[in-house]
């Protein structure tokens, strides 16, 4: 695990279009109890659906766990039926907003430009942007995976000050590694991609800025492969999907990460 930022790893989960309000509250209560009992070193975050955002924020209020939204509009308010602004997300008590997930890009037409606009909106509202990047199977097969991912990162961070860039978190989620039955990127491939991202960010900003931006991996992470990925030198944390839809699954992976931290001390 790389020593980025303050050296504390990030472990989080996004629930996509899952969880009832009751399920979300129960998950949050169990997570709060775990944190209280074990005092984990990791930066923990959960990203519920909008219907449960305020409730999960309420359940985790005063806890070190951060709550985030899965998406937000780039405008602060206006006639955008069905949309939610970053200001509204922050007003719920959330601290993070996920931006640019591949499903948003490919199913809902989001572009690198809209991702950049949303990053700025998040920062205006005091939120941490969790910027998702990743290449398709075709882009990897044609040898442009690194170029694709670096383009996404550079456009998302374009025009930011160093202080603003250091508020961002980047999650590398190869499109081909997401979804049921998908195969995760190998730990080595993950490490190489994160190293390439860090190098490109250091060219745009400074090496110390690149070192201060947490780089996470997401894509078919589970209890069987989490430790191998977590051990890689450039990995600052994990963004977990299906394997963390149950609180048991999330706590298992979180526990594995914590044991790795203890073993490294």
Count the E strands: 8
For the record, what is the CATH homologous superfamily label? Answer: Aldolase class I
Shape: globular
Helix content: 40-55%
Which architecture name does CATH use?
Alpha-Beta Barrel
Q: What is the CATH T-level topology?
A: TIM Barrel
The CATH class, by name, is: Alpha Beta
The secondary-structure class comes to alpha/beta
Mean pLDDT metric? 96
Please report the distance between the alpha carbons of the first and last residues.
12 Å
Low-confidence stretches: none
How many domains? The number is: 1
How many helical stretches?
A: 12
Largest sheet: 8 strands, parallel, barrel
**Gyration radius over CA:** 17 Å
> Strand order within the widest sheet?
1-2-3-4-5-6-7-8
Output the keywords.
alpha/beta; eight-stranded parallel barrel; 265 residues; TIM Barrel; 8 strands
Provide a concise account of the structure shown.
This protein is of the alpha/beta class and 265 residues long.
What secondary-structure arrangement, pairings included, does this model have?
Layout lengths: L9 E5 L6 H18 L4 E5 L2 H10 L6 E4 L16 H6 L4 E4 L2 H7 L3 H13 L3 E6 L3 H5 L3 H13 L4 H4 L3 E4 L14 H18 L2 H6 L2 E3 L8 H5 L6 E4 L6 H18 L1
Parallel strand pairs: 1-2, 1-8, 2-3, 3-4, 4-5, 5-6, 6-7, 7-8
Helix pairs in contact: 1-2, 5-7, 7-9
Describe this structure in words.
It is a single chain. The protein has one domain (10-264): Alpha-Beta Barrel (TIM Barrel). Helices cover 46% and strands 13% of the residues. It has twelve helices and eight strands. The protein has an eight-stranded parallel beta barrel with strand order 1-2-3-4-5-6-7-8, surrounded by five helices. The two termini are 12 Å apart.
